[in-house]
Write a structure and sequence with these properties.
Keywords: Mitochondrion, Ribonucleoprotein, Ribosomal protein, Transit peptide. With 128 residues, this protein is α+β, with helices and mostly antiparallel strands. It has five helices and four strands. The chain has a four-stranded mixed sheet with strand order 2-1-3-4. Strand 3 and strand 4 form a beta hairpin. The longest helix has 23 residues.
């Protein structure tokens, strides 16, 4: 997960009972395995004393920031979203390295064509 990130900022008030997601995500970021996957990765922790809700802000390696409301978003959901975005970043990088444009734009008329190399299923196969 950390290989897609350059920085994580975790903000919470220690007296707020809704900090579970922040604590779990911070533990994931500080694990040995995670640290080894991206040694340049930075974790910034801001312990607040005001009523600001717990928040996790991630910065992807391409500079894009995304903030998550840690009161209503479990750490596992944040991790899943980071991995999905990371797959998109890897795909984009592969296209750019191959000299292809990004994003890939598929002409509308090609969307209605059947995929080549794939046989359409017969009606009796569909029923089973």
């Amino acid at each position: 997960m950390l290989k897609f990130l350059s920085k994580v900022k975790i903000e919470y008030n220690a007296l707020d009972p809704r900090i579970a997601s922040c604590m779990e995500f911070m533990a994931q970021c500080n694990s040995r395995k995670a640290r080894e996957s991206n040694p340049a990765f930075q974790v910034e922790v801001k312990r607040r004393t005001d009523e600001h809700p717990p928040q996790i802000t991630v910065t992807f390696v391409n500079g894009v920031e995304q903030a998550f409301d840690a009161t209503s978003t479990p750490a596992q959901s944040i991790r899943t979203m980071i991995l999905e975005k990371g797959q998109t970043l890897e795909t984009e990088q592969m296209f750019r390295e191959a000299g292809e444009s990004w994003p890939v734009i598929i002409p509308k008329e090609e969307l209605s064509h059947p995929a080549s190399g794939i046989k359409p299923r017969k009606a009796e196969e569909k029923k089973q």
